């Protein structure tokens, strides 16, 4: 039954996604709906064996997402765009996490750290929606004020930042007691993850420079190393927390900085892997949704989501305050930071899979966030990007 279920997921997920993209709608929304239809909440077609490893498959999908982000995020870009890109890495997400934490405490009755856990799930922008669109704008020369680069750099780091916070809040909620040390150790978790990524990345650089293996082998080595880092995090968790996901992203960034040709080659390989894991990720997150939790959160769940987006937009505005952007360009940056999908699908069901009392509501609102913000945000980016942004050649001519 597991193989039959996997075949249904891949074939139906692919064609539903393809059909929706043909009519300019977000394909992964259809994949989520497919998962809900096939899952235990409705038809119950998917096998329990496959659903039992759902959280593991979603974790692997998240590794693929962050690797792709790392392989496309150049240190030189961060240096070029400066302050706005650095602030966009954490300020909008922080605003949203705090706003959602407070709103969900009073509107949904969640505990404070349960609310912040929900906020850290909602706080990430979607690389699956945003990154391809920013890359397309860069390729078409809409880089007059480096706006696509700012968004691409900031959104990639934004994902890692929220994921690190998510696991910190998850530990607090799981233990049932507040441990100030857990919050204090978050910077150490981030720094150790970066240092580990640099160390392992240097070893990979040495290997790639002295070998000429085909793409499949190079992807296998990078992917296998990423899995080892995930395992190392689990082994060390009793003694010390590291962010293996941040390590994986750092490895990709280092490879792009030092060996760009190899990084671009690996990126192509990971793009192919993502086609597979994208379907698995969104269908399985749809299968994990219990519609009773969606009904339970009701209008208050949507209100919490909207409050979070409002404060997130305020955070984006503060990040780009003082730049030379006009009001349309600033509004475009706000639109580009609205879509949620990949990270929410990856970590939205973890609290539920661990048996936490808030898990059902967290997953339900995560799914609502995907269904509401992904198509709207993607549509607004497509509608305004080439109308409101200026080309590099036009900006140079204007200055002359």
Jot down its keywords.
80% helix, mainly alpha, globular, 400 residues, 21 helices
Care to describe what's here?
By secondary structure, the chain is mostly helical. The chain contains 21 helices and no strands. The longest helix has 30 residues, at 359-388.
| Global outline | globular
Number of distinct beta strands: 0
* Quaternary form: single chain
Rg computed from alpha carbons, rounded to a whole number of angstroms: 20 Å
Write the layout of secondary structure elements.
Elements: H1 2-22, H2 27-38, H3 48-52, H4 54-72, H5 75-81, H6 83-88, H7 91-107, H8 112-122, H9 127-139, H10 147-175, H11 180-184, H12 186-209, H13 215-236, H14 244-258, H15 260-287, H16 291-319, H17 327-336, H18 342-347, H19 350-353, H20 359-388, H21 392-399
Helix pairs in contact: 1-2, 1-15, 2-15, 4-14, 4-15, 7-8, 7-16, 8-10, 8-20, 9-10, 9-20, 12-14, 13-14, 13-15, 14-15, 16-17, 16-20, 17-20
Question: What is this structure, in a nutshell?
Answer:
Helices cover 80% and strands 0% of the residues. It has helices at residues 2-22, 27-38, 48-52, 54-72, 75-81, 83-88, 91-107, 112-122, 127-139, 147-175, 180-184, 186-209, 215-236, 244-258, 260-287, 291-319, 327-336, 342-347, 350-353, 359-388, 392-399. Helix 1 runs antiparallel to helix 2, helix 4 (54-72) runs parallel beside helix 14 (244-258) and helix 4 (54-72) runs antiparallel to helix 15 (260-287).
